[in-house]
Amino acid sequence: MLSFFICLALLIGGYFVYGKMVDNTFGTDDRETPAVRINDGVDYVVMPQWKLFLVQLLNIAGLGPIFGALQGALWGPVVFLWITFGTIFAGGVHDYFSGMLSERNDGASISEVCGIYLGGLMKNVMRVFSIVLLVMVGTVFAVGPAGLIVTLFQNNGAAGLVTNKEFWLWVILAYYFIATFISIDKIIGKIYPVFGICLIIMAVGVAIGIFTKAEFVIPEIWSNFHNMHPKGTPIWSVMFITVACGAISGFHATQSPLMARCMKSEKQGHFVFYGAMVCEGVIALIWAAAGCSLYAVTGGLNTGLQEALANGQSAAIYDVCKKTMGGIGIALAMLGVIACPITSGDTAFRSARLVVADWFKIDQKAYASRLKLCIPLLAAGAIIGHLDYTIVWRYFSWTNQTLAMIVLWTASMYLYKEKKNYWLTAVPATFMSAVSMTYFFYAGECLNLGTTVAYPAGIILAVVFLGIFMRATKKQQAA
C-alpha cells in the first residue's frame, strides 16, 4: 500500500513541479486567445477554467483510464510505475503541448499543427491518422454502450424495442449528430462537467472502499517486481500500449484543440491540459490498485483479475464498484460504463469534423457547412458500427500511441525552432517511438514477429527517428 501512496504523491507533485517547468519552458503570455479573437459562437466559445478542466478530463478520459488500468493490472503493481512516470514525463507533456500549440495556431486541429512544424507530408499522414482514429473511437463508443443498455434492460425483465441493440446504436448515433453539429457550449459545456465530476467521484469511492475494507490489500511494487500476467504477455511493450489513457494517449491530442478554442487566457493551459492528464493518471492509479488488490493471485499470477475481465471490461467495472461501494457503486458503475463512453464518442466525431474542416478550409459557422461534414462522418460511423467490434478495436491501440509519438516529435521541433529545451519532449518522443515500433513488430494484429525481432527493431527504429530529428535540426541551423 505504501508504494501506491508514493506514486500518488509523485503524481500530485509532478503537476506542481514538472508541470510548471513544462509551462515555463513553453512560455505562456497575455496574447489574445483564439476564443476571444475569433469567437464564432460554435467551436470558438469562451468558457470558465473549471469547466474547461472538467470537459477536457471527460474528453480525454471517459472509461479509458479505467479499462486500460484494469487490463494493465494483469502485469501486477509494476503498472503503477508506468502510470506515474508515464503521466508526468510523457502524457502530461504530450497533452500540454498538443493543446498549447493548437492555441498558438488559431485552435488548429492536431494534424494541421503537425504539418506546421514537421512539413506537408506529415500533415497529410496525421490528417488520415486522426480521422481514422476518431471515427474508430466514436464508433466503438457507440457500439459498446448500446450493448450495455440492452443488457441492463434484459436483466430487468424488459422486452421489445428497448432490448434491440440496433435501435440503441441509432439512438446514440443520432445524439452524436446533434452534439457534433450544435455549439460546443450547448450540450458539452453544460452537461459534461457533471459527468466529469461523476468520474472523479467513482474513482474516489473505489479508493475509499479499498482502504476501509481489511480484505483488500494493495501489493507493494518492491515485493512483486515481476511479470504477473497469467498468459506471460511481455511487459515491454504491450503493457505500455495497453495502459494508454492512464499514462499517454494520442487520442488526447485530437481532443485538446477543442478546449484550446475555448480558453480565455494562455495561463489556463497548465491546469486545463497538464492538470487534466494528472487527474486521469490518479484515476488510472486507483483502478490499477483495485485490479491488483480485489482479486486472487495464484502462483504469483493475477488469475483472479483475468477471470473477472473474461466477462468483459464493463462487467469488471461493475464488480469492482459493487465490492468497494455496494449499491451506490452499482449506480455509479452503470452511469460510468454507459455515459462516459458516449461522451468520449461524440467529442471524437466533433474533432473529426474539425479536422476535415481545417483540411479543406471549410468555415463551420454556417449550418449548411457543418451538415456537409456531419452527415458523411456519422454515416461512416454507422457502417463501421456494423463490423466486427474486435476487429475495429484491434488496431486502435497501435494507431493511438503512434499518434502520440508524432505529436511529441512535433513539439520537439517547435521547441527547437523557439530555441528552447527540446529534450523535454524529444526524450519521451524517442521512448514512445520505441514503444510503438516494438509493438508493431511484436503484436499478432501487426507483424507478429515475436520479441526476438521486435525488441531490437523497436530500439533501432527509435534511435533512427531521433537521428532524423537531430539531422533536421542541423539542416535548419545551416539554413
UniProtKB/TrEMBL annotation:
Keyword set includes Transmembrane helix: yes
GO annotation terms (biological process): cellular response to starvation
Superkingdom to which the source organism belongs: Bacteria
Membrane topology designation: Multi-pass membrane protein
TM stretches of this protein: 74-97, 131-155, 167-184, 191-212, 232-251, 271-297, 328-349, 370-389, 395-415, 422-442, 454-473
Family: Belongs to the peptide transporter carbon starvation (CstA) (TC 2.A.114) family.
Name used for this protein in its record: CstA N-terminal domain-containing protein
Compartmental location: Cell membrane
Domain CstA N-terminal: 4-143, 158-294, 302-438
Keyword Membrane: yes
Sorted UniProt keywords: Cell membrane, Membrane, Transmembrane, Transmembrane helix
Organism encoding this protein: Clostridium symbiosum (strain WAL-14163)
